[in-house]
Amino acid sequence: MAYGVTSTTLLLAINTSAASASATVHLAEIGTTLVSGAAHWRFGNVDWTVVRRVGVPGALGAFAGATFLSSLSTATAAPIMSLILLTLGVYVLVRFTVSGLPRDRVGLPLRKRFLGPLGLVAGFVDATGGGGWGPVGTPAILASGRMEPRRVIGSIDTSEFLVAIAASAGFLVGIGSENINFGWVGALLLGGMIAAPIAAWLVRMVPPRVLGSAVGGVIILTNVRTLLLSDWIDASAGIRYASYLVIVAAWAAAVAWSVRQHLADRTVEPVVAGDGPGEPATATN
């Protein structure tokens, strides 16, 4: 859910230009999403109708976002991208820490009028922010309560292959291949291809609530650092470190709360249809 956001954040932290960072990540994502999608399909985590309905408009939004970001100056683009990433980080942290996932509507169909605009917006944000397809698309569909979490993650991850191709094409047109470090692309691709099948397997077991809180904190901390060091703010060392301390404390509390709530939810296992009298209830987590 946060490969692009995390990778772009780290590239920005070592002073890579915004457009080059996003282009590097999206080129790597062509390979990682292909491997990840295949792994999710293998584990039964993919709804191909959702992939098609959200992925095609997502590709259109990604191409538009890539060409838009390519037209901005580096000084302007870096803080804007960090603001987008920070917003996504806050959204992910709050959404997964505070809110539980509705489970009473699983199986109901997702409407085209919901998936189409979602894909278009998520694709644009993904390209301009260097990531965001997962952080925008996954919580939005999870919040509908109409799909199992593992199938939401698998379908969003698989559809990102289309988004990665479209965004990469937009960046190649906008900034040219000479402004992309293909060594970094290869490194990100290799790491992502190793991690993707493992993640597709783990997503069936790791609580999404805990994972969302953990990833959200990383995104917030790193992008606050970029903003505080930017020309927009240029904060003093004292303000920076005080801010980092507050963020880390809030982050630790959020992860602890998510773990606590997950454990509490596991103690309440509702009986589903088919469980007979005297038989143990079937777990839904």
TrEMBL record:
Subcellular localization: Cell membrane; Membrane
Keywords: Cell membrane, Membrane, Signal, Transmembrane, Transmembrane helix
Signal peptide (UniProt feature, chain positions): 1-21
GO cellular component: plasma membrane
Source taxon at top rank: Bacteria
Transmembrane segments: 77-98, 156-176, 182-203, 241-259
Family: Belongs to the 4-toluene sulfonate uptake permease (TSUP) (TC 2.A.102) family.
UniProt xrefs under PANTHER family: MEMBRANE TRANSPORTER PROTEIN MJ0441-RELATED, MEMBRANE TRANSPORTER PROTEIN YTNM-RELATED
Protein name (record): Probable membrane transporter protein
